[in-house]
UniProtKB/TrEMBL annotation:
Gene3D superfamilies: Acyl-CoA dehydrogenase/oxidase, N-terminal domain, Butyryl-CoA Dehydrogenase, subunit A, domain 2, Butyryl-CoA Dehydrogenase, subunit A, domain 3, Cytochrome b5-like heme/steroid binding domain. Transmembrane segments: none annotated. GO terms for molecular function: acyl-CoA dehydrogenase activity; flavin adenine dinucleotide binding. Its cofactor is FAD. The keyword Flavoprotein applies. GO terms for cellular component: cytoplasm. PROSITE patterns: ACYL_COA_DH_1, CYTOCHROME_B5_2. It comes from Tetrapyrgos nigripes. This is Cytochrome b5 heme-binding domain-containing protein. Belongs to the acyl-CoA dehydrogenase family. GO terms for biological process: fatty acid beta-oxidation using acyl-CoA dehydrogenase. Keywords: FAD, Flavoprotein, Oxidoreductase. SUPFAM superfamilies: Acyl-CoA dehydrogenase C-terminal domain-like (SSF47203), Acyl-CoA dehydrogenase NM domain-like (SSF56645), Cytochrome b5-like heme/steroid binding domain (SSF55856).
Length: 552
């Protein structure tokens, strides 16, 4: 057997080269080899531990049945070993493997160790995606990242930024995301440090002065060059992880809780807390919603009463993202003068309890209670009694980031469905040969493309407008797009679950991304404003601008 050096993503040492005939001899229970994607695996010992059971590794596939029948006829003349009548073992199991497992199974170190060689002169049938690379599946990437298409919005710098972001997501975040999503644990300080090192946390807050003096993603983009398309790319790349709880656990609380501080806090307060938060050493959450009031911020019941140089705060907050581990809370309170926002530090009288939600507790969703908590008057954000404008000032940005992540998550689902419907064989034909399945794919693709194109158009406007103009001219459009995108997401999730069947119901295995999205797509329809409220807001904003001098 000749030695062969294979430069591969999974192993790089000198590996042995075999013929298929040689592999066929290893077809017994304790001497069990299979070929998957031109690699030869020795499963002799692993068969006992195989999560799918030992018997399936020994069972006949249809192809091997035929092959064995021929063997059987020959055996009438020359008897084979009795066991070899029912082997998958000793065969090329590529097709059956990919119909039952995701590629990532083969990439786990404990399984790459099972490789004993490669089949001579045989090309890989499946090319695993290299971390950081683009997908070649149609509609798996937005048009601007698809070969041979152009875009009026993105520059070479955006393209470079996208490449680096995807690399970061694939190599630094992906493993952590899977682990935290499954175990419900909070993001590790080690990964947070890496995010802070690249200033990813600061970039999540959008373009602005807070980026000045910072080195962004290893100097890929200069702080004053960073625009809303860079931020869009960042959000969309992160959302490709397909782990909804972890996406929020990656400090979404900061994205919505910190802007009121640096837009409305005193210079001393900002100097004290903003750097440590943007560097991932301390954590902040936005605490507005209550069991008593959600979108209706005027109905909040948490109170703040003045006492000397302090507010004394009493009340409760519910559904607070990152609340279980937050050091600071940006809180809406009722005062004598009206709604007022203030920064409350985790101190005596502040308690947080995890709330069990439909997504992973890695997001740190909390119920927060304030019991006679003294808050320095200097922690007031904006003017006393004008809390509504402080809260509203960040809503458009929050909603826009939700749209970006929701659209990107949908695209991942489209990619999953394109792959699955092409590889899944039912009654001898791929699923995609069914018109009803193609109709679902058509709906999904149309929806995600509509969201992407509308979103890019709004993002372009944001790049050319002041904050005030965004509030005046884009609030309604952002609201309408958010409800459209989240509804599209929920419909896509439903269609994808129908396509994947039972696989869409288990959080691990082939349909794990579909299961996660199907379970959590409703979050985008509620967080940052429910669909009905936003649709109404969008129309009300439009009606406000109806000229009085028009008639049919
Ligand atoms: C290198 C070889 C293999 C490895 C490392 C492996 C590993 C695994 C793992 C980790 C699972 C759990 C589910 C998942 O994480 O996707 C699984 C399930 C399964 N495996 Fe394998 N497997 C191998 C080969 C095969 C082959 C050749 C067959 C062919 C019959 C097979 C049949 C199954 C079945 C039927 C299940 C259960 C699937 C389900 O629950 O939907 N496996 N395998």
């Amino acid at each position: 057997m000749a030695g062969l050096t294979i430069p591969s993503a999974t192993f790089s040492s000198t590996v042995k080269s075999f013929t298929l005939d040689e592999v066929t001899k290893h077809n017994k229970e304790n001497d069990l080899w299979v070929v998957i994607n031109s690699n030869v695996y020795d499963l002799s010992r692993f068969a006992q531990l195989h999560p799918g059971g030992k018997s399936v590794l020994l069972n006949q596939s249809i192809v091997t049945s035929f092959y064995r029948c021929v063997q059987y006829l020959i055996s009438l003349v020359l008897p084979p070993e009795p066991q070899s009548l029912r082997f998958t073992a000793g065969q090329d199991a590529t097709t059956v493997f990919y119909s039952l497992h995701r590629q990532e199974v083969l990439e786990r170190p404990q399984y790459t160790r099972l490789i004993v060689g490669k089949i001579q002169d045989v090309e890989e049938q499946v090319t695993p995606r290299i971390p950081g690379s683009l997908s070649s599946v149609p509609y798996a990437e937005p048009t601007w990242l698809s070969k041979e298409f152009t875009s009026p919005y993105y520059t070479d710098n955006h393209r470079l930024f996208q490449r680096k972001m995807r690399e970061f997501v694939d190599t630094v975040l992906r493993e952590e995301a899977l682990k935290c999503e499954e175990k419900g644990t909070r993001i590790s300080q080690e990964v947070l440090d890496k995010m802070a090192e690249t200033n990813l946390l600061a970039m999540r807050l959008g373009p602005g002065l807070h980026l000045h003096g910072r080195i962004l993603l290893g100097s890929v983009v200069k702080p004053d060059q960073f625009d809303y398309f860079h931020e869009l790319i960042l959000d969309m790349e992160q959302a490709r992880l397909g782990t909804r709880g972890f996406i929020d656990g990656m400090l979404s609380g900061m994205v919505i809780g910190l802007p009121p501080v640096f837009n409305h806090g005193s210079p001393e307060l900002k100097a004290r807390i903003v750097p440590e938060i943007m560097e991932g050493r301390k954590f902040i959450a936005l605490a507005i919603t209550e069991a008593f009031a959600g979108s209706d911020v005027n109905g909040l019941q948490t109170t703040a009463v003045r006492n000397g140089d302090f507010w004394i705060v009493n009340g409760t907050k519910k559904w607070i993202t990152n609340g279980t581990f937050a050091d600071y809370f940006t809180v809406g309170c009722q005062t004598e003068e009206g709604l007022t926002v203030m920064l409350i530090e985790r101190t005596e009288g502040v308690e947080t309890r995890p709330i069990k939600t439909a997504y992973s507790s890695t997001a740190g969703t909390a119920y927060v209670t304030f019991d006679n908590v003294p808050v320095p008057l200097g922690n007031t954000l904006g003017k006393v009694g004008q809390g509504l404008s402080v809260i509203l000032s960040n809503f458009n940005h929050e909603r826009w980031t939700i749209i970006a992540m929701c659209t990107s998550a949908q695209r991942v689902i489209v990619e999953e469905c394109m792959k699955w419907t092409s590889q899944r064989i039912v009654a001898g034909k791929p699923l995609s040969s069914q018109p009803v399945v193609r109709a679902k794919l058509g709906d999904m693709i149309s929806k995600v493309e509509a969201c992407q194109n509308w979103l890019e158009s709004i993002t372009d406007q944001m790049n050319h407008m002041s904050h005030r103009d965004v509030a005046d001219k884009l609030a309604g459009r952002i609201a309408l797009l958010k409800q459209f995108a989240s509804k599209a997401g929920r419909e896509i999730a439903e269609d994808a679950a129908q396509i994947f069947g039972g696989r869409a119901l288990t959080p691990s295995g082939m349909g794990r991304l579909i299961e996660n999205y199907h379970r959590t797509s409703g979050y985008d329809a509620i967080l940052g404003g429910t669909e009905d409220v936003l649709k109404d807001l969008g129309v009300r904003q439009a009606l406000k601008k109806m000229p009085s001098n028009v008639r049919l």
